[in-house]
């Protein structure tokens, strides 16, 4: 959802493939069905945004092992172990930090 908000306007006419290590989220995005109201709201916003910006989005499952950099970045705040791994293996050199406003993570009401 955050990626769609940040870069969706740049993807017009494109087919975008998103890799996700959360198998449940991938399944829900493919099926379009969930009983979780928060996830349903997130999906509605993504679908609305893809329709507005005229692009297609496809989620593909990727194991945490195969998604090590993203997995460790998501755990950065939990332990120095994750930071050290990324720094010591020079995995941060090609990444650029983005400072985001907290409202980027808020849902649009009633889509």
Content-based structural category: alpha+beta
Q: Which of globular, elongated, flat, extended, rod-shaped describes the shape?
A: globular
Biggest sheet character = 2 strands, parallel
| First and last CA, distance | 14 Å
Tally of strands:
2
- Strand order of the main beta sheet, please? 1-2
What is the helix content? Answer: 40-55%
| Total separate domains | 2
| Average pLDDT level | 87
DSSP strand (E) fraction? 5-15%
Low-pLDDT runs: none
Task: Name the helix and strand elements from N-terminus to C-terminus, one letter apiece.
Answer: HEHHEHH
Rg over CA atoms: 16 Å
Q: Tell me the number of helical segments per DSSP (H or I, 4 or more residues long).
A: 5
Task: Give an account of the 3D structure.
By secondary structure, the chain is α+β, with helices and mostly antiparallel strands. It has 2 domains: 1-62, no CATH class; 63-95, no CATH class. 43% of the residues lie in helices and 11% in strands. It has helices at 2-7, 23-31, 37-53, 68-74, 80-88, and strands at 15-20, 56-61. The protein is globular and about 40 Å long. The two termini are 14 Å apart. The mean pLDDT is 87.
Q: Features of this protein?
A:
2 domains; 111 residues; single chain; alpha+beta
